[in-house]
Amino acid sequence: MKPIGYWLNRTDLALTTTMNAMLAGSGLTRLTWQVLNVLEADPQATDTTVRMSLTANASPAELADVIATVLANGWVVRPAAEHLALTEDGRARLSRVGERVAAFREASVAGVSPEEYRTAVAVLEQMTLNVESGQGC
Questions:
Q1: pTM of the model
Q2: Local structure of 1: helix, strand or coil
Q3: Considering its fold, how many domains does the chain have in total?
Q4: What is the pLDDT of residues 50-97, one digit of tens each?
């Protein structure tokens, strides 16, 4: 059996690669889609909000690049310094890919019961907390 780190890395790569391919026709990537979702969920979002929300998904430099990209593409505007807000085009993009993302999510957990999914997430969360707190190190 391969160790959990192998499967974590392989799963993340598979999710990213597949989502990037699925979203490419809409001009999005997994990370740009995630940024737009953060902004949709929080109308008062700032650059810091995005960085904190997605810290596990990308480096600060990658997130800065994606923020610059969504601004340059007109999917997001700055209503005030350091603040970010979706434009109508940004909202429309999220809406257009919503069904495909939902189908992707459903397909990605095919054969996994809701209980198994909750257990897997709980185990990963506990492992992360253990490592981040320095337990056993």
A1: 0.89
A2: coil
A3: 1
A4: 999 999 999 999 999 999 999 999 999 999 999 999 999 999 999 999
